[in-house]
Amino acid sequence: MSINVLMPALSPTMEQGKLAKWLKNEGDPVKSGDVIAEIETDKATMEVEAVDEGVLARILVPGGTENVAVNTPIAVIAEDGEDPAKIEAITPPPKLPGDMDASQSLAAATPVATAQPAIPPETFASEVPADTKMIPMTMREALRDAMAEEMRRDPAVFVMGEEVGEYQGAYKVTQGLLQEFGSRRIIDTPITEYGFAGIGVGAAFAGLRPIVEFMTFNFSMQAIDHIVNSAAKTLYMSGGQIHCPIVFRGANGAAARVGAQHSQDFAAWYSSVPGLIVIAPSNAGDAKGLLKAAIRSDNPVVFLENEILYGKTGDVPALEDYVLPIGKARIARQGSDVTLVSFSIGMTYALAAAEELAREGVEAEVIDLRTLRPMDTATIIESVKKTGRCVAIEEGWPQNGVTAQIAALVQQEAFDYLDAPVARITGKDVPMPYAANLEKLALPSAAEVVAAAKAVLYR
Amino acid sequence: MATEQTDPIAAPIAELTREQEQAALRDMLLIRRFEEKAGQLYGMGVIAGFCHLYIGQEAVVVGVKMAAREGDQFTTSYRDHGHMLAMGMDPKGVMAELAGKRGGYSKGKGGSMHMFSRERNFFGGHGIVGAPAPIGAGIAFANAYRDDGRVSITFFGEGAANQGQVYETLNMSALWRLPVVFIIENNRYAMGTAINRATAQTDCFRRGAAFAIPARQVDGMDVRAVKAAAEEAIDWCRNGKGPYLLEVLTYRYRGHSMSDPAKYRSKEEVEKMREEHDPIEQVRARLLASGASEDELKKIDADIRKIVAEAVDFATSDREPDPAELFTDVVA
Predict the structure, then answer these.
(1) What is the CATH number of the domain that holds A301?
(2) A412: how many CB neighbours lie within 10 A of its CB?
């Protein structure tokens, strides 16, 4: 009986990677524990070990292949005595990440694919010159480039956080920064969020521009006192004397299969606080342009990234200094039938739903808020006045969510234009479960967005 | 007051010149008269909310200020009026802020616990217990980053010394050799909780050892002792050797805030402290012994009363903030 060797995942969120090279050839005998290949992602490298004894009968994916999906069979090991020549590769279709099992969908609507569609380059048209070249890169790389560019530009900018230096970033966002800028400006901290957030705030009061990385925003709860009481309020409490130009950044929201304490969306928490700027980009281009703007801001900025999005590739304008305005939403897709409003990974569901709706003849307008505070309410209201219907989407919990704010805003400012109540799609009102099926159910889905859009269209 | 010195570096009592003694007297008197007036104005309803008076602790901040250099930064907790006056902030602006008036240091939007002066290198005024530790260390981080020779001096109480963020900060400060002096103003009571009821190791300076930070316990009622110890500590930091911790033994005569029930300690204890250890009387006695005349001292007293009276006039006659100020200074 032959055994398939599958493309392994290096992390819970990895969906694909590069099969860098094979260390064994077809026909080589292998035993359990032998390293047979090397896998790379933009985050890390990993060795693939044989899990059984036999002969490497067939290599299905050659060395050097990029974008090999997790769980794709990459080789076949024949058991002793089997004739390797007679073995056919068994190639079950790889399980698509984010694939919703129809029977488990909470929404009555037809499930749709949740793969994130690329955001078309023309959506940047208003923000970059028409003939700007676009460079595809991951959000992780875009964030790193933004920090590196700002550090080259301003010696007051430095990065501090857990594992940002020698480890190269827990999620590799700070990869290479220590090598370029040295340990004076890339500072590994002990695991003491409250303390180093406060030290960052003090340094900002004194005129430096700290970028404080939280490995994930779940740990910012240890530091929320300094973010709210010290960073957000001091400009006001000092009558405008003491600025706090600091960026608190890191992965926010659900990752994948990491359970309740590591899967929480803090967008609603921080965006309720006056004195803070809150940014939550959905794609690499926005991530770069907005992180650069955040670093230059004289205000404390909470910059909410997303682990699932770190590895997603998007177009980044090849401009020497690409800085986006804070507080400006982006119309990611134009439409006239219904307005879908979201941000960060919520855009994944919104855009997938818009694709599906288009197939059914419904043209959705999709708004990416990008900045949650100050919120670009004018863009939302203008769109709703056109469509008369609104669905707001977030991964956070329903009570007091960002989408609750949007619903209140729309009914207050565009009531006469509404043809249906504002619908909200949110994470479910539970701590995040671990089991794969329950986790999917706890998160929003494109299917739920489609169903909500149809509901507000009375279709 | 008992002092225990376990640190190998000796801290002699500083010998003050007559001019220095007079300056110390003036600075401490200003704080005391200012605070007495603030207490009165609180009773009259001119000052509201939380108001924490520094009476009894004057020698701490005045002694440290005497040891600091121009450019060194001070950060403290909510019991901050004395620190602001010691840093040379205008008593009118401080009193007006206490009264919630537009001429206050924070335009009336900060209040007693939240005042700052970038010009005078005073970084607050923080209402959250323990917060001055990392904020002061962060300012020291900026000093080290710029290598500008400044020292950050940060004050907090012995109650705050139990906060987790203080330990986190001591660790990082030592690790990164930040030029920060941590001054634990041990006035024996965290609100109404005596130190021995809240703190297992009541010698706060011993916490330095756990983080390889040199530390010393100082008689905070004697401005000379505070100055000498602060000089040592500040020099240590300025020479790039890392942080330093001083536990300054002091005493507040008034309640924790204005609404203190004063049930947790005896009147006799307070009276004994005032009569035997008052920091201002100690300086006055030394000046008289060294030949200063009563008239000289009376003149200092009169000058100070005038400054405080002017501050009160300013604060009471100043206008409330313009309603339009409600929405300013929220973001830059």
Answers:
(1) 3.40.50.970
(2) 10
pLDDT in tens, A97-106: 444 443 444 4
* Interface predicted TM-score of the whole assembly (ipTM), two decimals: 0.93
Question: In A191-330, which ranges are continuous DSSP H helix?
Answer: 193-205, 224-225, 234-237, 267-270, 284-296, 307-310
If asked whether residues A187 and A248 sit together in one domain, one would say yes
pTM across the whole model:
0.88
A355 catalytic residue (yes or no): no
- For residue A434, the domain's CATH number is 3.40.50.920
Alpha-carbon span A272 to A270, nearest angstrom:
5
Q: What is the pLDDT of residues A120-143, one digit of tens each?
A: 433 444 578 888 999 999 999 999
Of A190, A198, A208, the CB nearest to B145: A208
> What pLDDT digit, counting tens, does each position of A291-321 carry?
999 999 999 999 999 999 999 999 999 999 9
Contact B131 A205 (CB under 8 A): no
Find the domain containing A64 and state its range.
3-86
Q: Which residues of A touch B129 (CB under 8 A)?
A: none
Same structural domain for residues A20 and A151? no
State in Å, rounded, how far the first CA of chain B is from the last one.
Answer: 48
Half-sphere CA count of A247, side-chain side, radius 13 A: 27
Closest CA to A260 of A225, A221, A230: A221
Q: Which domains does chain B have, with CATH numbers?
A: 18-74+127-316 (3.40.50.970)
- Cis peptide upstream of residue A374 (ω within 30 degrees of 0): yes
Residues of chain A neighbouring B330 (CB-CB closer than 8 A): 235-236, 274-275
pLDDT at position A42 over 80: no
The pLDDT score that the predictor gives to residue A452 is 98
Question: Do A177 and A285 fall within a single domain?
Answer: yes
The answer to the question of residue A93 being in a domain is no
Higher pLDDT, A353 or B2: A353
